[in-house]
Specification:
2 domains, 3-stranded antiparallel sheet, alpha+beta, Trna Endonuclease, Chain: A, domain 1, 5-stranded mixed sheet
Length: 308
Amino acid sequence: MSFKLENGLSVEPNQNEIADFWEVECLKRPDKAASILTIRKARGIGDDIQEPDDDEHDFELEETDQQIVAELDRRSKGCKGAYPFRLKGKGEKLRLTPLDGQLEFAYLYLLAATRLNMSKNRVHDGIDGALLFEEVCAVVLRNYFGRRAKSVVFGTGAGGGFHDKLEGLCREITEMTLLPLFRSKSYAPQDDGLDIVAWIPFSDGMASNMICFAQSKTGTHWDEATSQLDVSAFLKRWISTQPALDPIKAFMICDSVIAQDFHNRAVTNLLFDRCRIAEYMDFSGEGELFARVIKWTKAALLSHNIAV
């Protein structure tokens, strides 16, 4: 069982779980800071060690501590200015450092949407955090592909029926046309595994556009979902005139992928984990969406007595 806010650390947590736990511990405290000794105690290591009262004390980092600090350092670099925590010294203490424009809530949203039970506990203050993630991912893909890129939410968060969403998608990407009588098929899924579509259009309206089909997942149970979206099968089932270029497939998660595991995860998808999403969570012109991200994050954390 992976670390959840409801349960605490698992028996044998990996460095990503422990790093998330450390970040959450910072959020729980009045001064928004926690030392590596707090993390050791939570893991049942060094229960008799007393934390010093001052910040000048140097801790001797053990090998596991160093791995956790390395993960946090990777996050700081990977988020490119969007990481709201800062390590002191060699990594003895971690502290929440608010960013300009409340941008720390972009990362805190992803952290909360990873470590809450998003199957049973995803709606807070009237907002569904999982559906919200689809909207966030649509913005992220648009930012990633550049200023002329477009994106739409195709999954549950978009509302409407599956067939209507297909028609809307083909109106947007004009090089695709639907199969005749596509509405008569008895197979009518909710979204057929497709959550977001992004593309870079040409003004001539001709074929050969860069298109990306993406799937998004909150929580930590995403391992078996990386291959659920079969782009080729989706196109064969529904599309008569198919894109001249095969669409790129993307997989987008709130969780942080272990560094040594990243290449293996990335060979079948354009992979966006927490840091990559945080880097491209630019909400310029998306004030209403960002307001909902902040609102959900505050309410979700407060449901576990964490005030931010």
